[in-house]
Write a structure and sequence with these properties.
mainly alpha; 459 residues; 2 strands
Length: 459
């Protein structure tokens, strides 16, 4: 294809350079065309054997294996434009290992995780090809949240509870406001109105409402206990509530998987069939995939290890960033880290929305948020319980209210099963407002209910 494009482009240039004299013009044209064809043929033969087959399909193993490795590596690295940021992966690891300036370490590893998240998503898609639409989508959502999970586990191990809580909340907000808003906006510019399965969307939004309640109840309990209990007693009660709530949320997520894959699979199968109708989906179905299951599995392991290393250096440099750049931990965890972790999902969701596959876009955006709220966050609470870190579901009142409003607006916009660009602009606008609010929100703001109860107790 590229050689044909070069040939047509070269022929066009020759046409422009053709002299007015007919015989002389023909001679010059024939000469240049012959040169272009010969050059193209040489490039074509450079990567093929004597039989005209590409080297990665050669019968000789010592030729086929290294050629196939190079071909697969090249196709994998060039599948997404953000992969040029991979140059920051070794730089981030080296600068982190030599304990360089923490600001430089943070920026390098921040940029390094973006292409790693993209490659993680790509390898997951390649591995999930043979699993079908539903299982493949579930696997995409799971590994799509792997970056947030790894960063949060590292932060939890280091006792950075605020970073973990902000990262989880920020990931949900990023998906249901920024990612979903960009999907509505990008798809709405191309299509006047887009439709999606309102039943599936309603099920997901209902579960998101339950997860919202799981954050409101601990904050309300903390406020209700007031100053009548000591700080240690209140913290113990919140831990008990958080541990019990986390287990219930995990059970609910397991029931949702059973609902999705077994008892009500027909709802999601209809969604998949709607997304896979038409000639475009047939072409995608017949499209040759780059990675074999084994290669995709190995890639997932290697990429996960590199993400873990970069995340370790990233989290270790946060304290210095907070002091030098005067940015709160809450803003870093709630806005910056989710942008890194959701970069690949963001691109995927917008691309499928522009293809009018809104069910898939909704599944990526809200499905990923629901998994963070019902699986990853409760898992981190249980993990903190195991390793002795006081990770709870008690968020500050301001954060809880923001989360509640975001879920409320999102549920209202998707309830009719239709979307347009104006709804997308609303979601993006709300996300920007929240980002500005958390930019000026200090880490030591505390809980306003403490001040309220102290005022009441004085009276």
């Amino acid at each position: 294809m590229r050689s044909n494009l070069r040939r047509h482009a070269s022929a066009g240039k020759v046409q422009q350079l053709r002299p007015s004299t007919e015989n002389g013009g023909r001679g010059l044209t024939d000469s240049l065309n012959h040169h272009v064809d010969e050059h193209t043929a040489l490039l074509h033969r450079a990567f093929r054997n004597a039989d005209g087959e590409p080297f990665y399909k050669d019968d000789r193993p010592w030729v086929r294996w290294p050629s196939n490795f190079g071909y697969v590596a090249w196709q994998t690295l060039t599948n997404n434009p953000v992969n040029f940021l991979l140059v920051f992966v070794p730089l981030g690891i080296v600068f982190g290992a030599i304990h360089a300036n923490p600001t430089v370490v943070f920026i390098l590893n921040f940029l390094a995780i973006i292409p790693l998240a993209s490659l993680l998503s790509f390898a997951t898609e390649e591995l999930s090809v043979k699993l079908g639409q539903t299982l493949g989508g579930l696997m995409n959502a799971t590994f799509g949240n792997a970056v947030e999970l790894i960063v949060s586990i590292v932060a939890l191990k280091n006792g950075e509870i605020r970073i973990v809580q902000a990262s989880m909340l920020g990931s949900v907000l990023s998906n249901i406001l920024l990612v979903l808003g960009c999907c509505f906006l990008a798809g709405g510019v191309k299509f006047p109105e887009q439709n999606f399965n309102s039943t599936v969307a309603s099920t997901m939004s209902s579960l998101m409402a339950v997860s919202t309640a799981s954050l409101i109840i601990p904050a309300t309990l903390y406020a209700a206990m007031g100053s009548s209990n000591s700080q240690d007693a209140k913290q113990d009660n919140i831990l008990i509530l958080s541990h019990g709530t986390a287990i219930i949320l995990l059970i609910l997520y397991g029931l949702y998987l059973f609902f999705q894959l077994k008892t009500h699979a027909h709802l999601f199968d209809e969604e998949s069939e709607a997304d896979s109708g038409g000639d475009d989906s047939e072409d995608e179905h017949n499209e040759e995939h780059i990675l074999s299951p084994w290669a995709a599995g190995v890639a997932l392991v290697l990429i996960t290890v590199m993400v873990a290393v970069c995340a370790e250096y990233l989290v270790d440099s946060i304290d210095s960033i907070v002091e030098s750049a005067h940015i709160s931990r809450t803003f870093i965890g709630l806005i910056l880290l989710p942008i890194v972790g959701n970069a690949a999902e963001h691109v995927t969701a917008v691309v499928v929305a522009m293809k009018n596959k809104m069910d898939l876009a909704i599944g990526v955006a809200i499905g990923s948020s629901m998994q963070i709220a019902l699986l990853v966050t409760p898992f981190l609470v249980v993990l903190g319980w195991i390793i002795g870190q006081p990770m709870t579901l008690h968020f500050e009142i301001f954060e809880t209210v923001v989360f509640f409003l975001a879920v409320l607006v999102t549920n209202y916009l998707i309830s009719d099963g239709k979307s347009n660009y104006l709804e997308g602009a609303m979601l993006i606008g709300m996300y920007i407002i929240i980002a500005l609010a958390f930019y000026v929100y200090p880490d030591n703001a505390g809980d306003p209910t403490k001040t309220l109860w102290s005022m009441i107790s004085r009276r």
